[in-house]
């Protein structure tokens, strides 16, 4: 396949791999969780206090036990999704503390916002999986916020979902609640039913929460993303090959821990690393360097025969404007064309992860549908070429009246639901709406058309009962 973006040679990838192993052997990586350090130690990995030193053999054995592809099971089996090889999934934004309103103002996110984003995912034709922590609800009790979000994902949507990774307890609660939803722990054994995001603490550390929850989720049979967010020139080297080497060392260490905790745990090789803005010191996730790193991260994941993860519709813009559209489209197209398998932040995110926007979610959905149309397989067979029609119409004819055009018009040509294709007269007659106005109008209909997915009352009761037990007296907004 031809691409103008840089393609690593095998020698270049070998060099990054060997340099990463040298870093782990000589410098090691700090794991701020005693249980995780003990897991490494019990498997013969060299440790010094909190620092562990996985060897090339340790890493290679871990890589051999990682599946190249896996299926995430959904409550509705028709919505289960494969991750890896040529299969990819798109997910909404993640981790935003604020909601950006249609007028560009921000407010703290609330649980009702979280539920509305779940409803949008349920009705989406381009977003394959439900997220977790799409926004951080300020009105949820901190002791039970993870349960509130998981309950919204289970009761308002029947697509696969992301799991809770925010602490050891939250990860354990996640496994217990998923077991209640899927009919017991045996229901989690064959296929994972969630994917949870685990980030390293660059440079060369894993926090106690990240490491301990990774272990809990792996033991519970759930898939994990081991990812890094490195800022070149700040938390990591300023050169992209140096950044990729540091990122790779951190991912390989986390991947090894997951396999030591439970061999065969599905692991996704992930990154949202990018450049530091040299004027402000802030992360620049709309920068071209992010797309370069996404492309090269996908190549390194394939080198290891692992599924890959990156961001999708990312932008530094603070409102739904031309900057948001340009940066988001560039990063999403790069992720899809580079072969990324798990595309987080495919809809809704603004301001370098600071907020989610309902209007941007709707716009990003449309762009995601367009990108899917761009990469759909095309078969140049006899029926598709239809030489007879070309001969029949001949010079100066038209194809508009051909029966084949009528039959295939809805299938062969992308039909936008949001983007304007009216001429100036038609657009003016509709009030000259801009894209943000059109998205706001469409948003109302989308939320009004949501219907709760089918679920046996007994299963719903089991889920709510288990959530109440896990909350330990903390109030649940979802109840």
Characterize the structure shown:
With 479 residues, the protein is an alpha/beta fold. It is built from 18 helices and 20 strands. The strands form 5 sheets. It has a 7-stranded parallel sheet with strand order 6-18-17-14-12-10-9. A 4-stranded mixed sheet has the order 2-3-1-11. It is globular, with a radius of gyration of 23 Å. The relative contact order is 0.14.
Topology:
Elements: H1 10-26, E1 29-31, H2 34-42, E2 46-48, E3 51-53, H3 56-64, E4 70-72, E5 81-83, E6 89-90, E7 98-100, E8 106-108, H4 111-122, H5 145-155, E9 161-162, H6 168-181, H7 186-189, E10 194-199, E11 205-206, H8 208-219, E12 223-228, E13 231-232, H9 240-261, E14 267-271, E15 274-276, E16 283-284, H10 288-303, E17 308-311, H11 322-338, E18 342-344, E19 349-350, E20 355-357, H12 358-374, H13 382-385, H14 387-393, H15 403-412, H16 424-429, H17 435-448, H18 457-471
Parallel strand pairs: 1-11, 6-18, 7-20, 9-10, 10-12, 12-14, 13-15, 14-17, 17-18
Antiparallel strand pairs: 1-3, 2-3, 4-5, 7-8, 15-16, 19-20
Helix pairs in contact: 1-9, 3-9, 4-5, 5-6, 6-8, 6-18, 8-9, 10-11, 11-12, 12-17
């Amino acid at each position: 396949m031809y691409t103008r973006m840089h393609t690593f040679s095998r020698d270049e990838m070998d060099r990054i791999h060997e340099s990463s192993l040298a870093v782990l052997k000589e410098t090691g990586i700090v794991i701020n969780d005693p249980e995780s350090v003990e897991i490494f130690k019990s498997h013969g990995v060299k440790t010094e206090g909190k620092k562990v030193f996985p060897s090339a053999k340790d890493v290679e054995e871990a890589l051999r036990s990682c599946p190249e592809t896996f299926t995430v099971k959904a409550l509705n089996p028709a919505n289960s999704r494969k991750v890896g090889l040529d299969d990819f999934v798109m997910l909404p934004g993640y981790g935003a503390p604020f909601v950006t309103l249609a007028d560009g103002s921000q407010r703290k996110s609330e649980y009702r916002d979280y539920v509305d984003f779940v409803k949008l995912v349920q009705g989406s034709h381009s977003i394959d999986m439900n997220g977790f922590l799409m926004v951080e609800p300020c009105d949820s009790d901190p002791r039970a916020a993870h349960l509130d979000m998981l309950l919204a994902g289970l009761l308002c949507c029947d697509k696969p979902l992301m799991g809770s990774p925010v602490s050891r307890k939250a990860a354990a609660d996640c496994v217990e609640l998923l077991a209640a939803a899927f009919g017991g722990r045996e229901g989690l054994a064959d296929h994972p039913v969630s994917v949870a995001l685990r980030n390293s603490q660059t440079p060369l550390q894993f926090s106690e929460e990240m490491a301990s929850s990774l272990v809990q989720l792996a033991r519970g049979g759930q898939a994990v993303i081991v990812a890094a967010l490195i800022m070149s020139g700040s938390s990591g080297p300023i050169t992209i090959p140096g950044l990729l080497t540091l990122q790779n060392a951190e991912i390989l260490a986390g991947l090894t821990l997951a396999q030591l905790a439970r061999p065969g745990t599905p692991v996704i090789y992930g990154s949202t690393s990018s450049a530091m803005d040299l004027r402000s010191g802030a992360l620049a996730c709309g920068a071209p360097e992010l797309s370069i790193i996404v492309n090269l991260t996908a190549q390194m994941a394939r080198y290891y025969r692992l599924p890959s993860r990156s961001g999708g519709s990312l932008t530094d813009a603070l409102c739904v404007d031309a900057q948001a559209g340009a940066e988001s489209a560039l990063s999403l197209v790069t992720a899809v064309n580079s072969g990324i398998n798990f595309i987080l932040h495919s809809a809704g995110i603004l301001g370098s992860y600071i907020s989610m926007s309902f209007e941007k979610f709707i716009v990003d959905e449309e762009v995601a549908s367009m990108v899917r149309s761009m990469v759909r397989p095309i078969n140049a067979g006899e029926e598709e070429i239809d030489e007879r029609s070309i001969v029949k119409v001949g010079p100066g004819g038209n194809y508009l009246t051909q029966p084949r055009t009528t039959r295939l018009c809805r299938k062969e040509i992308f039909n936008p639901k949001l983007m304007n294709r009216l001429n100036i007269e038609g657009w003016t007659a509709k009030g000259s709406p801009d894209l943000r106005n059109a998205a706001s109008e469409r948003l109302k209909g989308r939320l009004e058309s949501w219907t709760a997915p089918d679920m046996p009352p007994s299963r719903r009761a089991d889920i709510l009962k288990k959530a109440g037990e896990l909350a330990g007296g903390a109030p649940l907004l979802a109840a």
